[in-house]
Design brief:
The protein is mainly alpha-helical. It contains 7 helices and no strands. The chain has helices at residues 7-15, 25-35, 38-54, 59-76, 84-90, 97-105, 108-125.
Length: 126
């Protein structure tokens, strides 16, 4: 993401994987707050790996499995024809494992806590 937009800078970022010029500082701050969740995602994956190790899976096997699983899930993000909600639904079996974890762990309260953390970060960025 770039702000303010500049043709040379935008062109450089396009060659590095893509540029998203934003119209104003408010949008830049919103995207900066979203970027602040990146290491949380890695910590989530590390927690999954540690949980598997805690249940007797060899550390290397757990690490390799979690990395491989989420690399494949990440590739699905390139399908711009489906919304993120559709991707989630496409990866869930009704009453299956994914639905169970989503509905028992990522509850409305959990979602609200994430929203509040992002709102607090955004307020600090402004």
């Amino acid at each position: 993401m770039t702000y303010p937009s500049h043709p040379v800078v935008d062109s450089l970022f396009e060659h590095l994987g893509g540029a998203l010029p934003v119209a104003d500082e408010t949008a830049f701050n919103v995207f900066s707050a979203v970027t602040g969740t990146l290491t949380t995602h890695y910590r989530y994956l590390a927690t999954l790996t540690s949980w598997a190790v805690g249940h007797g899976v060899a550390s290397g096997d757990a690490d390799r499995y979690v990395r491989g699983l989420f690399q494949e899930v990440g590739r699905a993000l390139s399908d711009q024809t489906r919304t993120l909600q559709q991707l989630a639904a496409d990866h869930e079996t009704p009453k299956g494992n994914n639905e169970r974890i989503r509905t028992t762990w990522f509850t409305p309260a959990n979602s609200e806590a994430l929203t509040q953390a992002l709102d607090d970060l955004l307020a600090d960025l402004e």
